[in-house]
Specification:
Distance between the termini: 126 Å
Strand content: 25-35%
Helix content: 25-40%
Structural class: alpha+beta
Largest sheet: 4 strands, antiparallel
Order of helices and strands: HEEEEHEEEEEE
Number of strands: 10
């Protein structure tokens, strides 16, 4: 039986296939677009996650730095080279660590008195000096002096308004192996004078450089 117009089955099938192909392609494109968006979001999220990780890295580094900073370096705890070292009786050694000129018109000396002997050392009363005003305030290092040999001047330990010497007081003895911090204050020599001789009764004298 013939129909008019003639039906081309092959053409219809091909057309159907083309239509299906077009639908499949369109669907595939939508799928690819969706995948692209999903991948983009995944990359964005991963990027944000990476940012968080990077933000945490400095904290970790800072924490490591703090831990490293809290550890003592090999040089910590070691005393600096003293400006002068005076030998005394019974194994006593006085190491002067600083001699600083201060704006107030005086010189502050810091030192360490150590007993290197095997027995406790009793400090001599001579360290206090022979001035009545100082002696009445007990054991001290009031007998120390600074000598400017060029200007031929001697500087004594300063006193406060009550006559107390501006130096460490009350040290009667030093145990074997122990170290006692000592400070002394003197009137400052002229600014042009930077080197003096430090003298303390019963100890050997030593040249001393004034800084500041």
């Amino acid at each position: 039986m013939f129909t008019w117009p003639p039906t081309d089955k092959r053409t219809t099938m091909e057309k159907g296939s083309s239509a299906m192909s077009m639908r499949f392609t369109a669907k595939a494109r939508r799928g690819m677009v969706a995948m692209t968006i999903a991948v983009g979001l995944a990359v964005g999220v991963a990027g944000c996650g990476g940012g968080d990780t990077d933000d945490k890295k400095p904290d970790g580094s800072a924490s490591a730095s703090r831990k490293g900073g809290s550890q003592a370096s090999p040089q910590e705890g070691q005393s600096a080279e003293p400006l002068a070292e005076l030998r005394g009786p019974d194994g006593l050694t006085l190491k002067i660590t600083s001699a600083q000129r201060d704006p107030g018109g005086f010189v502050t000396i810091n030192a360490q008195l150590k007993n290197d002997g095997s027995k406790d050392a009793v400090l001599s009363s001579q360290l206090t000096g022979n001035e009545t005003e100082i002696m009445k305030n007990g054991q001290s290092f009031g007998g120390a002096t600074l000598v400017d040999s060029k200007a031929k001047k001697r500087y004594y330990v300063l006193r406060d308004t009550d006559g107390r010497p501006l130096t460490t007081t009350g040290v009667q003895s030093v145990r074997a192996g122990d170290t006692v911090p000592v400070f002394l204050q003197f009137p400052a020599p002229p600014t042009g004078t930077t080197e003096v001789s430090f003298q303390l009764p019963t100890f050997a004298s030593a040249p001393l450089q004034i800084s500041g």
